[in-house]
Amino acid sequence: MLNPNIIENLKNYINSHQKVFEINETMIIDKKSEIDKFIEDIIPLLHTYADIYLSQSIKNFNKTRKINYSVGVKVTSNFLELDFSSTDLDKGEIIDILNQYRAKKKYYRLKKGEIILMDQEQLEFLDDFIKDFNIKDTDLKKGNIKIPNFRAHQLNVLQNKYIDIEKDQNFNKLFEQKIEEIPTKYKKILREYQIVGVEWMLKLRSMNLGGILADDMGLGKTLQVITYLESVKRERPCLIITPASLILNWENEFNKFNSSVSILSIYGDRKNREDLLSNLKNEVIITSYDYLKRDIDLYENIEFDTIILDEAQYIKNHKTKAAQAVKKINSEFKLALTGTPLENSLAEIWSIFDFLMNGYLFNYDYFYKNYERAIVLQAEKNVTERLKNMVEPFILRRLKKDVLKELPEKIEETYFVEMNQEEKNLYQANLVKINETLAQSIDINTNKIEVLAMLTKLRQICIDPRLLYEDISSSSSKINACIELIKKSIENKQRILLFSSFTTVLDLVAQECDNLSIPYFMLTGETNKVKRNQLVEDFQNEAVPLFLISLKAGGTGLNLTKASVVIHLDPWWNISAQNQATDRAHRIGQEDTVQVFNLITKNTIEEKILNLQNKKKELSDIFVENSKGSFSSLTKEELLDLFKLE
To answer: Could you tell me which PANTHER family the record lists for this protein (predicted)?
Structure first.
């Protein structure tokens, strides 16, 4: 027998949800919201108090019901035409069921009166499908939804048990386009993976798609592009946009392979640039991002066959003038070259895709709301997988360890340096002072320049206090350790690349080398293009054993395979910039094992930067197995941790 109190509690509970309830009378529930509540909440509660006898129709409520959905796909001109249908529901009901699902409801009452328990996995798939193709409810209801042809690959791989996709006979023809032949002379010099890369570009071109060639540094992206340009039959000009320091490098590469392509480098004064662009035929134009920004009015009305972005990370911030400029130019085919398409955030890969295939990853607000926020802030694995599937076909990435089995080993070592007591005192005093400043409620988000100055001061003390204090005459513990590494390497008949993010640090190392009569070259942002090329050529001809290089100026576009030792004197925010610099030596043509020394001052901000390098790498590992960073990408919490007193 039930406890009277339980009976009273049950009456009160039901009364609180069902106003029509009266003792000894039948309770009728006819409102949809109350039916949902009764099925989902009250029946389970009743089971806790007594044995409940349910009719078969009520029992059927808890049997999951799949709905038959299908999508017809028809190819029309440059679009795919989709039509949603269901043998069980009309289009209006499909929308209603999806809205119920989005409102976290499990049950749905069909127009014919039947109440069903909706299959949550099926509805999740359908909802994701609609998000991934940016289909609005109004379009779904009307039918005949038009989407760009570049979504064909998404549909082609989307075979799922939850929805039938019915394609017309023209759909498969999109994937059967013939590609041009690679010239015989290039087939003889290309490696197998490079032939695959060129054919991949040609295939994308045939399908009016764009792509990112994201091969590891030193795998010959430039040669693959030159081969592509020699392979295509075209009547219009092509455009290569590159950092200014690499224009001559591109010219040299075309000449090196005796390319039959007519090249035209656009630089010099404005009048000269205008004259060169005024009478184009089918040349390959080479210019820099800076010149393009200044001359965008000259490029906007030119119809290019192909546009190639070298070091495409230059457009990672979609708000910059460089990113906005390249997206104003018209071309049949677009290609991006970069070893690091995703550097600090998903917004960067969005920006590159916005150049390649405008609209493929939607507008940025939609992308942020439905993908970036869900992946970064909410760690939704399902969304991560969906985005990965969307971008993967258009990113070709090969690693040296996978395709160059004959490439010598790269051995990396973190080389810790202990400060002397004077350096420790200076470092600690500055750290305390910075924390006092931060305690005065400085807003890190709006005062990043001031915070950067604080960080720079600590980093400089870690390298050599002479960078800040004129009254210090002796070299630092780190500089001394670096010089010992240089001397030891030279004794072993090895050649060295030394990188630092501070040109003033390179000056200090140069002074020490002068004192020891160690010959060297130095390359910074002040080195002009002609001298830069000459220094590289002379180093490759073994003129000196040591090359001092600023990370920003020389981290890309150099071939320095005569070096077998790489020293990173100070860590950058993320590891990719250092990896790119290391790959000046560890690339095709290297015959010796490459030793890499990362010099880290112990118990300082440098160790924390080392931790950040690993942390920042995780996100891009999911998509392209590489990353690179900058100070501006750090969160408030990460910045505060750098200044934390131990």
So the answer is: SNF2/RAD54 HELICASE FAMILY
Which tens digits make up the pLDDT trace of 394-405? 999 988 878 887
Max CA separation in the chain (angstroms): 107
Contact 461, 427 (CB under 8 A): yes
Give Cα 620 distance to the centre of its chain: 6
How far apart CA 216 and CA 399 sit, in angstroms, is 5
CB atoms within 10 A of CB 291: 20
> Number of C-alpha atoms within 13 angstroms, CB side, residue 337?
24
Helices (H), 18-119: 32-37, 43-49, 56-59, 91-102
Q: Where are the domains of the chain?
A: 4-53, 65-174, 184-402, 410-642
CB 165 within 8 A of CB 129: no
| Amino acid (one-letter) located at 589 | G
Topology of 410-642 in CATH? Rossmann fold (3.40.50)
3-state secondary structure string across 249-310 = HHHHHHHHCCCCCCEEECCCCHHHHHHHHCCCCCCEEEEEHHHHHHCHHHHCCCEEEEEEEE
Quick check: 195 pLDDT over 80?
yes
Task: Name the token pair of 327.
Answer: 């997206």
**How sure is the predictor about 626, in pLDDT bands with cuts at 50, 70 and 90?**
very low
> Which class is 184-402 in CATH?
alpha beta
23-43: average pLDDT: 62
Each residue's pLDDT tens digit, 313-354: 899 999 999 999 999 999 999 999 998 777 778 899 999 999
Q: How is 537-550 classified by DSSP, letter by letter?
A: HHHHTTS-SEEEEE
In the block, residue with structure tokens 């049949």:
332
Judge whether 355 and 323 are in contact, CB under 8 Å. Answer: yes
Report the C-alpha gap between 219 and 405 in whole angstroms. Answer: 12
The answer to whether the 184-402 and 410-642 domains have the same CATH topology is yes
